[in-house]
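[job 4471] stage=fold_predict status=RUNNING
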Amino acid sequence: MNLWLALIMAAFLAACATAPTGMGPAFDAALVEASSGGNPYAADDALSKLLENTSLSDDERVRALYARGSLRRQAGDDRKGAVEDFGAMLKLAPEHPLASNAREELAFAQTDVETIEAGLARPLNLSQWFNSMWVLGAHAEAAERYRKSGLSPSETELAKLVADGFVCDDKGGEAPVYTLGDMRPDLEHKHWCAPPDA
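[job 4471] inference complete, writing C-alpha cells
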C-alpha cells in the first residue's frame, strides 16, 4: 500500500514539475526594452526584474542571464555579478548556443575579479579603492565610503554615482556632495540621495 501511494505521489509531483511555458514574444520585447535605455545600472535593474519572472522558459532564463552577465562584465561595472550570472547560465544550459560566448566572458570576468581583489590588498587612496570596489559590483559600499569621507568624487566617479542613483539634484537629496576644495560645475546642486527606505 505504501509503495502504491509513493508511486501516485511521484506521478503527481512529476506532473507539477513541468517546465514553465515562457513569455513568448513578450520576452523578446522585454529583453530589448531592458537593454536599450542607455543607463547600464537601470538596465541591470530591469534585467533583474525580468529574471524574477517565474514563468520564463529555460531558454528565456538563459538568454536573460547572458544579457545581464554581459552587461555586468562591461558597462554595468559588476564583475562578481557577471561571474555569478555566467555560472548560473552555464549550469542551466551548458550546451546552449550562447554557452561558448558565456565561457569566454566568464573567463574574462574571473580574471578581472582576481586582478582587482589582488590590487585591493595594496595601499590605495580613496579614489583607487572606490573604482576597484565599483568594478567588482560593491556600488553601495563604494558610495557610502565616499559619502562618509567628506571628499568630493571625481567627475567620472560622480557620473557613475548619479547614474546608479546614489547622488541626486537638490530635490530629495541629503548632504551636499561638495564639501572641500575648488567647486566644480558638475558638483553644483548635487546631494547624496536619501536612502530608499527614508
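[job 4471] summary: The domain at 20-118 is CATH 1.25.40 (Serine Threonine Protein Phosphatase 5, Tetratricopeptide repeat).
[job 4471] exit 0
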